[in-house]
C-alpha cells in the first residue's frame, strides 16, 4: 500500500485500514485479540498529533488557535479605550487596535469557513483532538469580546455577536468537559489550553453592561462566576500535575501557561462590572492574577530564549490584556498603587503585543520567501 497522503485524519484512516487488513483476527478467533486490535486503533487515533501549519495542496492550514490573537488585540483595545476615558490616554491607539482586531477576526473567520469547505477532515481532526479541542474556545471568546468594541457604534451587531459567542462558549464547554469525563486521555494531552473553555464561560458577562442587559441577565453572570470557581481549580490542578510529572512543553505551548492567570483576571472584571458591591473581592482576585503573571512570565521568558518565534505565542496576549483591563476597572479602589499597577500593565501588554506583531510579520515574510 502506498504512503498515505493528506492530513492526520487521512493517515489515521489508512493506518486503520492496514490494521484491519493485516491485523484483525478471522471470524471465530479469540475475542480478546480482536478487542486488543480495536483498542490499539482507537489509541492511535486519539494520540495522533495535529500539526499547526501542515501544507495541503495549494494552501496552508490555519489552526483555530489563531483567534487567540483576536482575543489579545480586542482586550488590549478595550484597555486603551478605558485608559482614554479615565486618564485621557490617546484614543487613536485603542481605535486602531479595535480596527485591527475586527479585521483579523473577519479574515480568520472567512478562512475557517473556507477550510471547513475544502478540508473538512483536517478541521474535524483538529476540533476533536484532546490537545487542540479546547482551543476552539478562542473563536467563541473572540465573539464575546468584540461586542465591547462594537456596542458604541452598532448595538444590534454587538448583541448578535455576543449571542452567538455565548451559546458557542456554553455548548463547547459542555462538549469539552463531557469528553474529559469519558476518559481515554493521557498525561501528555494536558496543557494550559484546557482552561480556555472555562475562560470562555467566564467571559460571557463582560459585555453585559455595554449591551445594556443588566440587571436582566445578572443570574447568568452569577452562573458564569460559579462555573469558573468550580472548574478553574480542578483544571489548574491537572495542568500543574502535567508540568510537575510530565515531559517538557513544546515550544508552541510555552505561552499557553499564562492562561492560568486568565480566569482570575476575567473574574475580577466581572465582579467589578456586574457585582460592584464586592470591591475588595474583585481587588483580591486581581492580585491573584498579578501573582500568577509574576510567577509565569519569567518562566516563559527563560524557556522561550532557545526557540524561534511561534505564532502560537499570541496566546499570552490575552491573559496580560485581561489583567490590564481588570487593573483599570479596580483603580478607584487601589489608590495610587492601583493606578501605577494599571499603567505599568498597560505599558507591558502594549510592548508584548507590539513584539508579537513584529514577530508575526517576520514569520510571514520568511514564509513568503520560502514559498
TrEMBL record:
Pfam families: SLAC1
Protein name, entry field: C4-dicarboxylate ABC transporter
Regions that span the bilayer: 91-114, 135-154, 160-181, 193-214, 220-240, 252-271, 277-297, 309-329, 341-365
Single Gene Ontology MF annotation: monoatomic cation efflux transmembrane transporter activity
GO cellular component, one term: plasma membrane
PANTHER family: DEP DOMAIN-CONTAINING PROTEIN, TELLURITE RESISTANCE PROTEIN TEHA
Keywords: Membrane, Transmembrane, Transmembrane helix
Primary location: membrane
Keyword Metal-binding: no
InterPro entries, per the entry: SLAC1/Mae1/Ssu1/TehA, Tellurite_res_ion_channel, Voltage-dep_anion_channel_sf
Protein topology in the membrane: Multi-pass membrane protein
The organism's place on the tree of life at top rank: Bacteria
Top-level taxonomy: Bacteria, Pseudomonadati, Pseudomonadota, Gammaproteobacteria, Lysobacterales
Localization per Swiss-Prot or TrEMBL: Membrane
Amino acid at each position: 500500500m502506498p504512503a498515505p497522503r493528506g492530513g492526520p485524519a487521512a493517515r489515521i484512516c489508512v493506518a486503520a485500514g492496514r490494521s484491519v487488513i493485516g491485523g484483525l483476527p478471522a471470524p471465530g478467533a479469540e475475542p480478546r485479540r480482536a478487542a486488543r486490535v480495536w483498542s490499539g486503533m482507537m489509541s492511535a487515533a486519539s494520540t495522533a498529533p495535529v500539526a499547526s501549519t501542515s501544507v495541503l495542496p495549494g494552501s496552508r492550514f490555519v489552526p483555530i488557535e489563531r483567534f487567540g490573537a483576536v482575543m489579545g488585540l480586542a482586550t488590549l483595545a478595550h484597555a486603551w479605550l478605558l485608559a482614554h476615558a479615565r486618564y485621557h490616554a490617546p484614543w487613536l491607539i485603542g481605535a486602531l487596535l479595535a480596527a485591527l482586531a475586527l479585521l483579523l477576526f473577519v479574515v480568520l473567520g472567512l478562512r475557517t469557513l473556507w477550510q471547513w469547505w475544502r478540508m473538512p477532515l483536517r478541521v474535524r481532526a483538529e476540533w476533536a483532538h484532546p490537545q487542540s479541542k479546547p482551543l476552539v474556545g478562542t473563536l467563541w471568546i473572540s465573539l464575546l469580546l468584540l461586542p465591547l468594541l462594537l456596542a458604541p457604534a452598532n448595538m444590534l451587531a454587538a448583541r448578535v455577536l455576543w449571542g452567538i459567542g455565548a451559546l458557542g462558549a456554553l455548548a463547547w464547554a459542555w462538549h469539552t468537559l463531557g469528553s474529559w469525563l469519558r476518559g481515554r486521555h493521557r498525561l501528555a494531552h494536558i496543557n494550559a489550553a484546557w482552561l480556555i473553555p472555562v475562560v470562555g464561560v467566564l467571559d460571557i458577562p463582560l459585555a453585559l453592561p455595554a449591551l445594556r442587559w443588566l440587571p436582566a441577565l445578572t443570574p447568568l453572570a452569577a452562573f458564569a462566576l460559579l462555573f469558573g470557581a468550580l472548574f478553574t481549580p480542578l483544571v489548574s490542578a491537572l495542568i500543574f500535575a502535567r508540568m510537575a510529572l510530565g515531559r517538557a512543553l513544546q515550544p508552541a505551548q510555552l505561552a499557553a501557561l499564562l492562561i492560568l492567570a486568565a480566569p482570575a483576571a476575567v473574574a475580577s472584571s466581572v465582579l467589578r462590572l456586574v457585582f460592584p458591591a464586592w470591591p475588595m473581592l474583585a481587588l483580591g482576585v486581581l492580585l491573584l492574577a498579578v501573582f500568577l503573571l509574576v510567577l509565569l512570565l519569567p518562566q516563559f521568558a527563560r524557556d522561550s530564549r532557545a526557540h524561534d518565534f511561534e505564532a502560537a505565542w499570541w496566546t499570552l496576549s490575552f491573559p496580560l490584556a485581561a489583567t490590564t483591563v481588570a487593573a483599570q476597572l479596580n483603580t478607584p479602589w487601589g489608590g495610587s498603587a492601583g493606578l501605577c499597577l494599571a499603567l505599568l500593565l498597560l505599558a507591558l501588554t502594549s510592548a508584548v503585543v507590539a513584539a508579537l506583531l513584529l514577530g508575526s510579520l517576520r514569520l510571514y515574510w520568511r514564509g513568503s520567501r520560502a514559498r
